[in-house]
Amino acid sequence: MRIAIIAHLKHAIGEPFAGGLETHTHMLAKALQRRGHAVTVFASTRSDPALGVEAICDETSLLTTGTDEANDVAFFREHHAYLRLMTALRTRDFDVIHNNSLHYLPVSMADTLATPMVTTLHTPPFCWLESGMRLGAGASRFAAVSTATARLWSHVASVDHIVSNGIDLTHFPYRATPDPEPYLVWYGRIVPEKGLDLAIDAARRAGLPLRIAGPISDRAFFAAHIAPRLGPDIVHVGHLSHEALARLVGGARAALCSPRWEEPYGLVVAEALACGTPVASFRRGGVPDIVDASSGILAEPDDVDALAAAARQAMALDRSACRRRAEACCDAERMVDAYERIYADMVAQPLRLVRPATPTDLEPILSVA
């Protein structure tokens, strides 16, 4: 098939990945290419050219300095980039469009395209995307990355499919034995909603060192809540490549996951299990879809003592059972199989809701649901 993938524009779709959405989009595009599809990824300028990238905007995260002016510039750059793209797609020859952007314009303008579109919901609801989905009049099919995410969006639109994100198991090889020196690991974007400060407190209460990997996406949060907690036992090792990250995660006795929000899927959980590393996590969002009793321990949300106890219990779990759990429910090949079935159904039974573009498409959507 000729497949267009619409990426989000805040970060490059390439290594080192800023987060789970960038990882997912890159992996999906590469897997589809390996299966013989012609893939074009509409993404930001520094994205991996091997994906068949057509750059539509510079990375808008480079502009978000915390000032209103920078945030306004980022908002309008994204708006006009997606507006130009959606207008251009009316004359491009694709079989299907897969929207991973989290932006309101692709869904609100889906009914101006003859090409069928599926939108994957990677986050809990937020006002801009809700508004775009309502304006799109049901022209896009929707997939959610977990049952929890589908449930959260049910008041806005019918979710047609639940497709769990997958990982390339070869990128996270199994480690039967962790490093001799025991430690816990936490990794991901360092932002308030990921709850790293809670994980640090839990590691200390569990009496174990913690190694932290990931980009500092919110510098104010890092300076106020993370930097003061660092020390000989709590170390931020930086933003690592896939290979280095797999070594770090595979060497840990357990991985901590501490979301303050309804984590849509929990890619870091899947990656840890693939390495054979048990998981201790707050019971939130899509994480319970991944972790079972053989592979991790779930704690009550925001309870640091419970997370510390979960970490101590998780270290006793069988590492081979963790790997088997990843193979059973987190393999990227299963995810790509599911999306191929969705694409085939879209081509066989396209929605017929095409309308002409109107002047209202040329302005930002300022009225929200």
Automatic annotation (TrEMBL):
It comes from the Bacteria. This is Glycosyltransferase family 4 protein. CDD domains: GT4_AviGT4-like (cd03802). InterPro entries: Glyco_trans_1, Glyco_trans_4-like_N, Glycosyltransferase_grp1. Gene3D superfamilies: Glycogen Phosphorylase B. Residues 19-170 form the Glycosyltransferase subfamily 4-like N-terminal domain. Residues 177-318 form the Glycosyl transferase family domain.
